[in-house]
Amino acid sequence: MAGNLSLRRAYPADAVIAEWRAPDGWAHRTFDWPAAGGARGSILFQAGRGDVFEKYLEAFHHWHDRGWHVSSFDWRGQGGSGRCGPHAHCGHVERFGLFHGDLRAFWTGWSARVPAPHVLIGHSMGGFLALKGLVEEAVDPAAAVLVAPMLGFKGAIPPRLAERLARLMRGLGDPARPAWKGNERPAATETRESLLTHDPDRYADEIWWQQADPRLLTGPPSWAWVADAFAETRMLREDARLARLNVPVLGLVAEADGLVDPKAAKAMLARVPTARTVAFGREAAHELLREADPVRDRALVAIDDFLEEKAPA
């Protein structure tokens, strides 16, 4: 069994699972784990599309053991933060602007109440939203880490054409309907497990949590989500403000990622003057923090070293 099962399938005794309401009243499920004694700083970790914070409890233990106050929340429309459409197992959001507003509002309140330095870590969609938040000056962390960030998509057709097709599909019917039946992308020949991790035990943790709490199963995205994801990532790639960012950024990129485009991520990070990139080869799938120990350990060491340098206590 990889790692410590008791850390991955149980909430820490002194962590608080609660609710935070966005300015428009939307209820988000939150995780908050204060450091024992004096914190060396605070990490806000934001997961990817369809994710829940339970999947990252093992990483939370790692950071908490090093003195960090650790927090997270499920994005609206997925996990324990409810659904924005009529389908119980579809990750729908009308527009990505809602995600941006939620991150801005949560960060404002969170950073005012938890110990500095403040760090933002985002995986996949969370990585995209973190970088977008930096560009928009919606967040002001001492440092940011983007783990397999969703800055482009793997696909059989060019991104511009895929964006046009997604926009067409959104307009042809109910935009809140599922874009496909299952898996992490349409017409995938790989299993969902192989797209996410080479570690079957850590992959099984997600299924265990979904069986323990069925509301944590999100399912595929809606056509509205897909269309906005293509448009938003394209606009960020074209944003001249990337070259003016002054927040230290670490990008962890899986070069064999079957979900997001690692070339797009590396190209975008190369435009950020304060960014450094650590690349992983074929040994790594999309979920670097839930990979087999050699990959996961290397990712955590890279994050630890970066934060010691860029966000010292």
From TrEMBL:
Residues 39-293 form the Serine aminopeptidase S33 domain. Pfam families: Hydrolase_4. It comes from the Bacteria. This is Lysophospholipase. It comes from Sphingomonas spermidinifaciens.
